[in-house]
């Protein structure tokens, strides 16, 4: 009996120690350019991604990358933006070699929005077909009844016949959704309004400007639209630019580079992917970027930074370690 009691005591102590350790390692801040681990201690693999807030939970969708290849779209969930639980593959490449998303395809810059009318979660990705490099330049659409998926692939296409590479989705205050995408070998940046079910582009599709830009990240504050983009230099970083407009279809005005701090003129060594409006916090946004590692894409790092509005201007300043309390500080 004493032996059993001793074993039980040891087990209880081990479980308690494990729980304490987990509590001690729980994250309470964002550290850009560091290796980010999920709640199971695995490296977070969600590049070129975007976030969706549903049921008091954030869902992070991003490219699952091997050393060089694309392996589908991963999804993680979080209640606080610091601690992320791996939910699984949201969209997997198909083993059907005739499918547009057959294994060996490229799925890049996944974004998910929720359609209140159809009650569907709709994912769009930039898709390149297997064995064709970047020649296909297509958009692909998949749907799910739950935010964590799995998503079912529906179709791929060139929006209104246009090439479609780096892309993003935006839902306006009235529930209308838009697809913003690089086209014509990345020379054009275009915007298309989506159908009511968010599954297809309408013919309301316009050239925003022709300045060879990619990596569009679109957001809205106080009635004004803001657009952060990157130059086109392959995997190498370059200077970001900010445009503003009172209308989604323009005209758009070039404001300049919103980045400030070390290596700001190269976007801190990274590239824009998304701007996250923080629910419950007015005029509060988080810039999301990737610092790409072309020799090992899985090891590409994440750069999340608070967006500040100073004297009417957008300022994205490098901060090594920060949390949401940053937004309570007066700029």
Query: What is the CA–CA distance across the termini?
Result: 65 Å
Give the name of the CATH superfamily: Glycosyl hydrolase domain, family 43
SSE sequence, one letter per element:
HEEEEEEEEEEEEEEEEEEEEEEE
Based on CA inertia axes, which overall geometry fits? Answer: globular
What's the main sheet like?
Answer: 5 strands, mixed
Number of helices: 1
| Portion in strands | over 45%
CATH topology: Tachylectin-2, Chain A
Mean pLDDT over the full residue set: 92
Could you tell me the radius of gyration in angstroms? 21 Å
Total count of domains? 1
CATH arch. level architecture = 5 Propeller
Determine and state the CATH class.
Answer: Mainly Beta
Outline the low-pLDDT stretches: 1-24
Number of strand elements = 23
Description:
There is one protein chain. The chain is mainly beta. It has one domain (about 35-320): Tachylectin-2, Chain A (5 Propeller), CATH 2.115.10.20. About 5% of the residues lie in helices and about 45% in strands. The chain has one helix and 23 strands. It has one helix at about 1-25, and strands spanning about 30, 45-55, 55-65, 70-80, 85-90, 105-115, 120-130, 140-145, 150-155, 165-170, 175-185, 190-195, 200-210, 215-220, 225-230, 240-245, 255, 260, 270-275, 285-290, 300-310, 315, 320. A five-stranded mixed β-sheet has the order 18-22-21-20-19, with no helix packed on it. The chain has a four-stranded antiparallel β-sheet with strand order 2-3-4-5, with no helix packed on it. A hairpin with a 6-residue loop joins strand 4 and strand 5 (about 85-90). The protein is globular. It starts with a helix and ends in a 9-residue tail after the last strand.
């Amino acid at each position: 009996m004493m032996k059993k009691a001793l074993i039980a005591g040891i087990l209880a102590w081990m479980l308690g120690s494990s729980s304490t350790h987990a509590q001690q390692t729980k994250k309470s801040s964002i550290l850009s350019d560091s290796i980010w681990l999920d709640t199971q201690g695995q490296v977070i693999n969600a590049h070129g991604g975007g976030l969706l807030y549903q049921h008091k939970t954030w869902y992070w969708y991003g490219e699952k990358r091997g050393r060089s290849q694309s392996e589908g779209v991963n999804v993680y969930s979080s209640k606080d933006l610091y601690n992320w639980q791996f939910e699984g593959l949201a969209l997997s490449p198909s083993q059907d070699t005739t499918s547009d998303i057959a294994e060996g395809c490229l799925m890049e810059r996944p974004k998910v929005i929720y359609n209140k009318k159809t009650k569907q979660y709709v994912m769009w990705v930039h898709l390149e077909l297997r064995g064709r490099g970047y020649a296909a330049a297509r958009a692909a659409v998949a749907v799910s009844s739950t935010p964590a998926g799995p998503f079912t692939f529906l179709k791929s296409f060139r929006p209104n016949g246009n090439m479609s590479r780096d892309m993003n989705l935006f839902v306006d205050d009235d529930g209308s959704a838009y697809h913003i995408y690089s086209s014509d070998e990345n020379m054009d940046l275009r915007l298309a309004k989506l159908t009511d079910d968010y599954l297809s582009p309408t013919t309301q599709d316009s050239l925003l400007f022709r300045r060879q830009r990619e990596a569009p990240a679109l957001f809205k504050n106080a009635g004004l639209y803001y657009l952060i983009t990157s130059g086109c230099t392959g995997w190498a970083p370059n200077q970001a630019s900010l445009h503003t407009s009172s209308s989604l279809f323009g005209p758009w005005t070039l404001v300049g580079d919103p980045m400030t701090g070390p290596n700001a003129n190269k976007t801190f060594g990274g590239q824009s992917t998304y701007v996250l409006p923080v629910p419950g916090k007015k005029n509060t946004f988080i810039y999301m970027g990737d610092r790409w590692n072309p020799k090992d894409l899985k090891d590409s790092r994440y750069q999340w930074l608070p967006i500040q509005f100073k004297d009417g201007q957008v300022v994205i300043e490098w901060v090594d370690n920060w949390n949401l309390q940053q937004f309570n500080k007066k700029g």
